[in-house]
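Supplementary Methods. Inverse-folding protocol.

Structures were first reduced to a discrete structure-token string of length 381. This string, shown here, constituted the complete conditioning input.
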């Protein structure tokens, strides 16, 4: 049985362990998760793709023969790295203080609330001696906040995770995220020609060229079929820009970081070609460096796993709705390996990555009961 008091204390404990990423400070939290899961007698593996950054894979074996039990596994996967704490908090960022039904702390919503929920669910299944036919796998991962290059990506690529279904625990207020935008993170480098600022016509300003390019990119139009679960179509955000050496010099180098998000139905390679052709209308001297890319993702809302989740949520009076994600969770990475996935979770809307991040205690406890029931019922499909 889910123990609310224990669940709350568990969340307060994992919040108290700093796991900011960057710089990738996940080791202490990983050790805590590993010890807690080993105490249940589960099959626990630590899998690392970078020094001091282990992923924790805890498995409750099913009763079927080993191969069949593994093939029918459900994988619930939260991440335990957080964005940096930053300045300006009213509440202690690692304090886990509860006020007016809200539990505060960095990672409370993204994603340690969901981590604690998964850990308590695994403990409850073991304590209640629940016998399921198929494996239940909890994959607590690192590096989600900076691209999952040491987490879900290699775990899937190397075949460590091969479930029948992945439930990505990284969403808000019971919503089932079934559609997600693709992304392209790129650095655009513009090369100009130096000159004295008083004789600027003798040079070519990379800053001015970059400004013209940014203006053109922001005014691009793409044609696509609108998805009712997404608010916007293609979006482009310039998050970083740097260039120049001195006020009285014509700048010969400028770089800006471009965040492009696009809905299912559009092709990332086509969008990248459009970006490059737009740059070329201003200058031929440029370079585009891709730092990250993810495909858009969509699972049919009539998929049996999604329908079951919504059915159980309704029965348990949890306000679950189908939602689309303008941002990026790791659900899109599972499609590369033909594994159906959707996201759910109990985070408070709009609090992730903010100061005084919080989760509603009531949502955490209610959601954990829903998660346990879902895992039990999915085993019957």
């Amino acid at each position: 049985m889910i123990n609310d008091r224990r669940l709350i204390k568990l969340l307060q404990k994992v919040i108290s362990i700093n796991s900011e990423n960057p710089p990738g400070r996940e080791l202490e939290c990983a050790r805590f998760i590993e010890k807690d899961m080993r105490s249940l007698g589960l099959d626990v593996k630590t899998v690392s793709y970078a020094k001091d950054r282990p992923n924790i894979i805890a498995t409750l074996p099913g009763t079927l023969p080993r191969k069949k039990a593994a093939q029918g596994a459900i994988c619930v996967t939260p991440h335990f790295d957080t964005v940096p704490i930053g300045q300006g908090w009213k509440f202690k960022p690692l304090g886990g203080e509860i006020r007016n039904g809200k539990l505060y702390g960095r990672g409370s919503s993204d994603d340690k609330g969901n981590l604690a929920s998964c850990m308590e669910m695994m403990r409850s299944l073991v304590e209640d001696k629940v016998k399921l036919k198929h494996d239940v796998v909890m994959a607590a991962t690192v590096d989600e906040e900076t691209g999952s290059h040491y987490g879900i990506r290699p775990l899937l690529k190397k075949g460590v995770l091969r479930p029948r279904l992945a439930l990505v625990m990284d969403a808000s207020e019971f919503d089932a995220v079934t559609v997600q935008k693709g992304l392209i993170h790129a650095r655009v480098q513009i090369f100009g020609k130096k000159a004295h600022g008083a004789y600027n016509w003798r040079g070519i300003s990379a800053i001015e060229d970059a400004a013209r390019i940014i203006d053109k990119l922001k005014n691009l139009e793409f044609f696509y079929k609108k998805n009712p679960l997404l608010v916007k179509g293609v979006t482009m955000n310039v998050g970083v820009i740097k260039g120049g050496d001195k006020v009285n010099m014509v700048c010969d180098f400028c770089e800006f970081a471009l965040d492009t998000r696009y809905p299912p139905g559009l092709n990332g390679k086509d969008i990248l070609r459009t970006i490059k052709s737009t740059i070329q209308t201003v200058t031929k001297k440029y370079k585009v460096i891709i730092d990250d890319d993810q495909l858009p993702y969509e699972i049919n809302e009539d998929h049996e796993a999604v329908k079951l989740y919504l059915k159980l949520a309704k029965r348990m009076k949890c306000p679950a709705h189908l939602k689309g994600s303008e941002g990026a969770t790791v659900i899109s990475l599972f499609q590369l390996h033909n594994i159906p996935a959707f996201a759910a979770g109990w985070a408070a809307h709009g609090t992730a990555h903010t100061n005084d991040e919080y989760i509603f205690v009531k949502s955490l406890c209610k959601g954990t009961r829903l998660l346990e029931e879902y895992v039990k019922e999915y085993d019957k499909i």
